[in-house]
Amino acid sequence: MDAKQIAGEKAAEYVKDEMVVGLGTGSTVYWTIVKLGQLVKNGLKMKGVPTSTKTEELARSLGIPLIDINNAKKIDLAIDGADEVDAEFNLIKGGGGALLREKMIASLAERFLVVVDETKCVKTLGSFPLPVEIVPFGWQMTRNRIDGLGCESKLRTAGRAPYITDNGNFILDCGFDEIHDANGLNLELNRIPGVVENGLFVNMTDAIVIGRNRGKVEE
Ligand code: 5RP
């Protein structure tokens, strides 16, 4: 079993009867969702709030009951992957393009559980280019302002066209190399008109499950 699968499946153990659960996006939390599908078939009573259309389709195909975010009185637990995790459990997310809904749902959840394989753990955030979701209108101007914060950004593409998020926006992947003040950068980015949200998740993580190779898991 690979490290992503180990971590993903372990996280499903945190889901208890009657919980409303934020369902993240990506190839690690995929295994959590698959496991939850099996548990639901065996009688687990839960409802999911998906963070992307991809996750929504997966959860539906597995028979997991879903609830619209606007109708969820509360979200007990959100489970999601990450592209990088530092020692304070701050994250870079958005490699899969779902960072806006992921951040909304994580911020609404009473507990936010992150599932990663060991390769995601870093000393300093920033080797993974930081995804920033921006509105298409005037995007090159927004990009110039973001680059002014000290990065080199690239417009994410799908084939020859810009990649479009579930919310109809673009994504810039921003190479900062090393991010020493994640909180400050998060605030600065979100102050730029045209920026919808960025992939820094600061002080949001409550717990982490790390899948290690050779079948080990750390909580
Ligand atoms: C999607 C994300 C993912 O959680 C992140 O990219 C990690 O994905 P994976 O588990 O496939 O490595 O933020 O927007």
Kindly list the characteristics that best describe this protein:
6 helices, 6-stranded mixed sheet, 4-stranded antiparallel sheet, globular, isomerase, alpha/beta, 219 residues, 15 strands, binds ribulose-5-phosphate
Describe the strand arrangement of the main beta sheet, using strand numbers. 2-1-3-6-14-15
Which structural class matches the secondary elements?
Answer: alpha/beta
Number of separate strands? 15
List the ligand species: ribulose-5-phosphate
Calculate Rg over CA atoms: 17 Å
Please state the average pLDDT score. 97
Largest sheet: 6 strands, mixed
Fraction of helical residues: 25-40%
- Individual helix count: 6
Low-confidence stretches: none
Q: What would you note in describing this structure?
A:
The protein is an alpha/beta fold and 219 residues long. Helix content is 27%, strand content 29%. Helix 1 (3-11) packs across helix 2. The longest helix has 13 residues, at 29-41. The chain is globular. The two termini are 18 Å apart. 47% of the residues are buried. The protein binds ribulose-5-phosphate (5RP). The site of ribulose-5-phosphate has 17 residues, from helix 4. Substrate binds at residues 25-28, 80-83, 93-96, 120. The active site is at 102 (proton acceptor). Keywords: Isomerase.
